[in-house]
Amino acid sequence: MFQKGFIFFPFSAILKNMKDTGETQNHYQRKACIFILFLLLLIAVCALWITLGSKKEEGVTADVYQDGVLIESIDLSAVPESYTLTVTGENGCTNVVEVRPGSIGIISADCPDQICVRQGFIGSPLLPITCLPNKLVIQLRGHDAASEDGGTVIPDMIAY
Fold first, then answer.
1. Which of 58, 90, 97, 116 could form a disulfide with 131 if both were Cys (CB 3.0 to 4.6 A apart)?
2. What's the CA gap between 118 and 94, in Å, rounded?
3. Is 3.30.70.240 the CATH classification of the domain at 60-153?
């Protein structure tokens, strides 16, 4: 169905059509093709390294903040079964948070845009759940986060 070298077909066609006449233009074209192939290969290797190289968290803790104040910290690896938590903010604003083993998410909110509900459940500290109208933030952190004496979290280079 596919010929040998199908992925690099455009480059192989260019390289085959060049005649070894000793012209410098063909020489530069050949070098440019090889350089482009090298860059594509380097980009692919970097993308694989970033995707597969990120280590899987052993366990995560969810920190629930209301108006910048930590109101609850939940060890998601220790949750035996799902339960809900209702967070009430200023002016009677409510968010219903569902805690599952290994993940957490907002299932109901009385904010107008519902972005926090549509974000779904998270189980990785890459992206927090944020409800701006109700001033609620759910941030996950790994258990292997740098900490001293089991309590004080040391900020990383990116955060500070």
1. 116
2. 16
3. no
Q: How far apart are CA 151 and CA 148, in angstroms?
A: 6
Q: What is the greatest pairwise CA distance in the chain?
A: 81
Residue 97 has pLDDT above 80, yes or no: yes
**Within its chain, how far is the Cα of 35 from the centroid?**
31
Q: Tell me what pLDDT residue 23 has.
A: 60
Phi, psi (deg, nearest 5) at residue 150: 75, 5
Could you write out the three-class secondary structure of the chain?
Answer: CCCCCCCCHHHHHHHHHCCCCCCHHHHHHHHHHHHHHHHHHHHHHHHHHHHHHCCCCCCEEEEEEECCEEEEEEEHHHCCCCEEEEEECHHHCEEEEEEECCEEEEEEECCCCCHHHHCCCECCCCCCEEECCCCEEEEEEECCCCEECCCEECCCCCCC
* Phi/psi of residue 97, nearest 5 degrees: -105, 130
Check residues 6 and 121 and name the one with the higher pLDDT: 121
CA distances from 14 to 11, 26, 40 (A): 5, 10, 17
Tens of pLDDT, residue by residue over 73-87, are 999 888 889 999 999
**Residue 124 pLDDT class (50, 70, 90 cuts):** confident
